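hiii so um. not sure if this is the right channel but i have a protein structure encoded as tokens and i wanna go backwards to a sequence. like what aa goes where. can anyone help
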């Protein structure tokens, strides 16, 4: 049954609910194309290095096509694929740079933990733990130190993940962007909007949660069967493993287009807020 759907009202600034709703509608209106691109991306990820770059590029292509709908300039899959393939090595460069950035962040976190441990040690050095009345104080200080470190790690990782959540979109959409500048572009666009983006992603995660739970249940079932399967029954073991891989790739291929459509919506909303782009979507017959 056909019906006309407006994704946005012209010039509308998105709320959390509208952003998620728009992503769902974009995905539903292009389900076949987006799912096939996502499936191709997940199959490529099996191939080291080059396949990872292809995964990055095809994921970004879904966002590019979604963005084309948002600006009322729809693009064919073939045309969009030619564009992202022309920047394939830039996507690989972005992937490598992000790897080193995350390594640097992890190292910095351990350095911070080391200094917090030194501070804690200095504080505890002044506590006579031989005195029974000070044992409670000693454990409270240890608990507070661990709690502080955990909070810094969790909040910091969430904040950084959000600031880097759009890194592949400028490279897939904008002109004169390379592997380095696309990272800076994501950092620039998300500035001051990190926790609003967090709310959008949190609500979106609730939508994908049932599929993720289902995949986990299937994983546990397959693992349980494999544990009780005789080691000499290689055929059954291999069939179960292939079944699990197929289910995982298929389920992941269903989820990825939703997230990439949502990133396109967030990206466009941020550009609208920062650069005055009007949100304008054509009516589509579904």
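sure thing!! here u go:
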């Amino acid at each position: 049954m056909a019906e006309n759907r407006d994704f946005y009202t012209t010039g509308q600034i998105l709320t959390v609910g509208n952003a998620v709703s728009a992503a769902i509608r974009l995905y539903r209106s292009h389900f076949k194309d987006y799912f096939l691109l996502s499936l191709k991306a997940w199959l490529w990820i099996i191939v080291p290095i080059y396949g990872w770059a292809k995964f990055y590029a095809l994921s970004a292509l879904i966002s590019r096509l979604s963005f084309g709908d948002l600006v009322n300039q729809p693009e064919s899959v073939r045309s969009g694929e030619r564009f992202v393939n022309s920047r394939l090595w830039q996507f690989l460069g972005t992937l490598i740079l992000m790897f080193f950035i995350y390594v640097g962040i992890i190292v910095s976190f351990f350095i911070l933990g080391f200094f917090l441990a030194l501070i804690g040690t200095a504080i505890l050095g002044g506590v006579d733990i031989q005195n029974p009345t000070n044992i409670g104080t000693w454990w409270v200080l240890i608990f507070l130190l661990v709690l502080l470190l955990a909070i810094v790690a969790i909040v910091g990782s969430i904040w950084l993940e959000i600031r880097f959540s759009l890194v592949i979109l400028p490279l897939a959409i904008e002109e004169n962007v390379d592997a380095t500048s696309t990272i800076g572009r994501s950092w620039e666009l998300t500035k001051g909007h990190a926790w609003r983006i967090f709310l959008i992603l949190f609500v979106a995660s609730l939508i994908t949660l049932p599929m993720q739970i289902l995949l986990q249940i299937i994983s546990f079932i397959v693992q349980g069967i494999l544990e009780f399967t005789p080691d000499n029954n290689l055929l059954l073991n291999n069939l179960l493993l292939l079944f699990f891989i197929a289910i995982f790739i298929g389920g992941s291929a269903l989820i990825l287009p939703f997230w990439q459509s949502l990133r396109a919506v967030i990206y466009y909303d941020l550009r609208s807020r920062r650069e005055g782009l009007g949100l304008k979507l054509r009516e589509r017959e579904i």
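oh and The radius of gyration is 23 Å.
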